Amino acid sequence: MEIKLNIPDYLSIKQWKQFTSLEHLSDGEKMVYLISLLSDKEEGEVRSWTPASLQQVYSKVLEVLSDVEPQFFPIFELDGELYGYSSMSNMTLGEYVDLERLAKQPQENLEEIMAILYRPITKHRFKGMKWAFKNTFKVSQGDAENLFKYYTLEEYDSNKRDEQAELLSEVPASMAFGALNFFLALASSSLANSNLSSLPPKQAMKAMKTMNQKMASIPIGDGLAQFIIYHQHPSFRSQGIEASLN
Hints:
By secondary structure, the protein is α+β, with helices and mostly antiparallel strands. Helices cover 43% and strands 16% of the residues.
């Protein structure tokens, strides 16, 4: 029996959330559901396969599920639209308070968090970036924060967040985890265990200023290094991988 199917080359936020909601299913039901979720096959067709074929296809699908290592990318493209990470230096108090609230349940709110951390780039000057060599690595001149000064994002609008969240649910879950980790590392490095939204406005703004100063000391990850060196950014949607199994 030969089975041909298209498997995505990454696990999206939407798919990852569906995957994590299957604890109530039996092992067999999980296999059927996941194969249908991550391929072009209907559940009814998958149920008609032999156990050996089902297990073989499931092993292929697991390769996609295992690729969720956090990766931070400051810039990416989705359906032809360029999105950029919102640095602390440009973040409003309203954005941060919304992030702080949503981050209390990060798995449930992952796409909404992404809709705050990433917004469409309205203007950039990447071609004007200046480079320098340091310890054999090609880096942007100045500190890590400088990259975020080379583009301007669409203003944050909480009323548009649900719409943007739906679009961003299609990007890889691994990238969302990377962005969330990067944000939490910055926040925790400056605030320790304090709660920004509970502070008086002047103290909150002072705390945010401290976070801005901490930006250069946080590890920025391979995705940012990739952009700095090659001016490359990932582009989505997934075209998928065609698999043929006997």
